[in-house]
Every structure is written in C-alpha cells, then in structure tokens.
Specification:
This protein is α/β, with parallel strands linked by helices and 286 residues long. Helix content is 44%, strand content 18%. The protein contains 13 helices and 13 strands. Helix 1 links the parallel strand 1 and strand 2. Pathway: Carotenoid biosynthesis; staphyloxanthin biosynthesis; staphyloxanthin from farnesyl diphosphate: step 4/5. This is 4,4'-diaponeurosporenoate glycosyltransferase. GO terms for molecular function: glycosyltransferase activity.
C-alpha cells in the first residue's frame, strides 16, 4: 500500500484509521511524505507507534509522479496498492483487492475500483452513477461476476498494480508534470502488454476538493487530458477527448459554488463555507 502525501495533516489520520481496520489484509503501508510543511509527518509517526507495518518514505522532488515512483520502488509486496491521502477505503476494500487478483487472468497488471466524493452535495448522485456504470459493465463483459478485466484507465486515487507490471512500465512513464500521471501510467500498462481491471467491491471515498478549485485552475487541469494522449502520439484519442474536457468544464462551472458552499458536517450549504480559505490543488502536485 502506497500513500503519496503533501500537507495532509487534516486527512491522513482518518485515511490511516480506515486502513488499520483492514490491516490483516495489508502487508505494508508506505506513506510518501512529499516535502510536507505541516504536521503530516508527525501524524504518520503517531500511527507508526501503533502499527509496525506503517513506514515513511521521504521524496524531496515535488510532484505526485515522483512520490508515486518512490513509494512503488520501496514496496516489497507482489501487489502494490495506491490510495490518495484524502481517500478513505471502505470496509472490505483490501479483501476485495486480494480476491480480484486471485481470480484475474495473468495478463491483468492493474486494477481500480469505484471512487465517490464524501464531502460533496452530489455524493448520492455520484454513487448512483457509479453503481449503474458497474452494473452495465458487468452485464456486458462478465455477467454474474464482480469484476471486469479490460478497461482503459486506473485512476490513481484508488488503484493497484502488480510488482511485475510496475517493473515493466517504470522506465516508460513520463516525468512531465503537465499531464495526467494516472492516465500516462495506464497507457504505459497497456503498451507493455497488460490489461487493467475494475473490481466492483473496491469502494473508496475521496475529497471533492478538486471540484472546489476555481474555474481557471480546473480549466488548466482538464487540459492535461488531451495533452497526455498527444505525449503518447495518439492524436485521434487526443481530439476525441475534447468532448470529455468541455463537458467536465461545464459540469464544474455548474457545481462549483454549491460544492464550495457545502458543509459536510451539517449536510447543508452556507455562505461561511463558500468563502472559506482552501488551497487549490496544484497541477502536478500530490
């Protein structure tokens, strides 16, 4: 298990608590401190005193791809899971991951699972959409099963890769910080001859903070999608991806203010939340 972390003192504790509830199914937890300037490292050390499977790796070069690489390189397990530091694994997540690879064909090199925002006013809609997406995919590709073994992408916030696959793609992944690192990795996985799967039982919840960033930042974030395909020489897919880019930008504009105003503790929207100070997620950052 690899967890890249940059200034996550407010979330890393609960994230680790969720993993400790499943620790019997987890070989190791590697938290990569990517030059945090807050109390992230201190929080991790407190958890280390409770659980010897937790260790810290420090990666001084800023950026999620460098933190991911440091964590994957340090991992000793045959299956290397990854969750973002603001992402909470639901009960049964680790068992579902093990069950997936126990049943998966040898050609499967990576897996992802459903990911829904826990602090969004649209949480229920996200979850309903994910359930329908899973039902459709399973009915088409694996009726009666709980997994699909050939999809295009494994989002980095909730995924795992085999050690064999990582060694095959490590030298292929780009070091550019202006592209989608998880899409880049997924493309490299397929280029190396592996497939990517989806487990219907690997549910995790993540922060909606990306959707709270200002429209200018989100606009730049979405521009990474076609750029990633162009880096891989896939001009056709780059052009096709602009439909996704523009639809996501429009959805962000429509939902930005309600998402910023939402108070997850009360379940209501408020002006106080709307004007709260929150750092935008920096492009290329963890």
């Amino acid at each position: 298990m690899v967890v890249p972390a940059y200034n996550e003192q407010e979330r890393i504790g609960h994230m680790l608590e969720c993993l400790l509830e499943q620790i019997d199914e987890i070989d190791e937890i590697i938290v990569v401190d990517n030059n945090s300037t807050d109390a992230t490292a201190e929080v991790i050390r407190q958890f280390q005193s409770r659980e010897p499977k937790i260790r810290i790796v420090v990666e001084e070069q800023p950026g999620v791809l460098y933190a991911r690489r440091a964590g994957f390189d340090a991992a000793t397990s045959t299956i290397i899971a990854r969750l973002d530091a603001d992402t909470f694994a639901r009960q049964g997540w680790a068992r579902a991951l093990r069950d997936f690879f126990a049943a998966a064909p040898a050609t499967v090199g990576a897996v992802t699972g459903p990911l829904v925002p826990y602090d969004s006013p649209y949480r229920a809609k996200f979850e309903t959409g994910k359930l329908k997406e899973l039902e459709t995919g399973l009915a088409k590709h694996n009726p009666g099963g709980r997994a699909v073994y050939d999809v295009q992408m494994a989002p980095g916030g909730n995924m795992a890769i085999t050690g064999e696959c990582w060694q095959a793609v490590r030298g292929l992944v780009s070091e550019r910080t202006d592209i989608y690192d998880d899409l880049d990795l997924s493309i490299c996985v397929r280029k190396a001859g592996f497939t990517i799967g989806v487990s219907a039982d690997m549910w995790a919840e993540t922060s909606a903070r990306r959707f709270r960033t200002n429209p200018f930042s989100y606009w730049a974030y979405m521009a990474q999608l076609p750029r990633t395909y162009r880096v891989h020489g896939d001009k056709k897919q780059a052009r096709a991806s602009y439909g996704v880019v523009w639809s996501n930008r429009l959805v962000h504009l429509w939902t930005w203010l309600p998402t910023r105003a939402f108070d997850v503790e009360t379940g209501r929207k408020s002006l106080k939340q709307l004007f709260r100070s929150e750092e935008d997620r920096i492009i290329g950052r963890v």
